[in-house]
Amino acid sequence: AGAAGAPTPQLRHEINRVGVVGTGTMASGIVEVFAKAGYDVTFVGRADDKVAGVVAAITKSLDKAVSRGKLDEDGRAGVLGRLTGSTERTALADADIIVEAIAEDLDIKLALFADLDRIAKPGAILATTTSSLSINACAAATARPKDVIGMHFFNPAAVMKLVEVVTADDTSVEVDETVRALCFATGKHPVSCGDRAGFIVNALLFPYLNDAIKLDEAGDATRADIDDALKATGLPMGPFQLLDVVGNDVSLAIQQSLVETFGHAGWQPAPTLVQLVAEGKLGRKTGEGFHTY
Ligand code: 3HC
Predict the structure, then answer these.
(1) Residue 10 backbone dihedrals phi, psi, to 5 degrees
(2) ipTM higher than the 0.85 cut
(3) Tens of pLDDT along 55-74?
(4) CATH second-level architecture of 202-285?
(5) Where are the domains of the chain?
(6) How many other C-beta atoms can be found within 10 angstroms of the C-beta atom of residue 177?
(7) Ligand 1: centre distance to CA 156 (Å)
């Protein structure tokens, strides 16, 4: 079911093949989500080793599920058999929906959307997983803004249920309904939001994470104790553990977009966040961030 009292959304477009652009943490998790739900998935990366990296990451995740008795060998083979990796965007031509999860850089996204507009078949849904850029801007890079929508997954995408479904000014009601139905079909929990900086969750979560960094900078409590305290309130992770999962580059981009939009002086990115990004200490993905792995 949808939000309380709301009718259950229906798939108003037939979805058989899903396209994913990107090979990073989010893209890999999203490929895994769709393939596990039974969809054929074509994913596109910039180089063969990056494409192979996605297959390796999903294989590792499936092996873990098999070892925990949550998946059998046939299920594992089925998921891997539904994956098609490519280094050519033209491989996305027969996808019914294309979800992009590439770099959080507006110029790169706009060039991609212009490309997808040329490549995607008529009626294909074009979704972005951006967490800090405008869906309207992505839509304006195409001649089919009614088919463009935001699908904001959370990290780790294979585990987190929430997807913020973000409609831009021209997104059609059919596309919105289909994407929400697709979320349910993949075991996700869609929540609707308009195209505003941070959507719902990040607008509330990142000022808190930024404040945790400032608390550490003030020197009255250690990172370990701050993490311990928040975990003990029942959160799954403390703020520094979560920052390292999200990636400091992503966190900095989100915090900057919140400051630019809402202008709260107190939301300026904490100096340590800026410094860690400059040093390439991005979190778990680089082996060091607020903690060392
Ligand atoms: N892929 C697939 N499965 C995974 C996984 C991954 N990357 N990571 C964990 N899992 C599975 C495990 O296999 C396990 O499954 P099981 O219990 O059914 O066998 C289950 O998830 C729990 O994992 P673990 O036991 O290893 O560890 P935890 O219980 O500590 O859970 C966690 C890990 C789910 C990451 C949990 O710590 C958590 O929920 N953390 C908070 C994450 C969060 O808040 N994310 C949102 C960040 S904001 C964001 O993403 C927005 C963006 O715009 C930046």
Answers:
(1) -115, 155
(2) yes
(3) 999 999 999 999 999 999 99
(4) Orthogonal Bundle (1.10)
(5) 17-194, 202-285
(6) 19
(7) 5
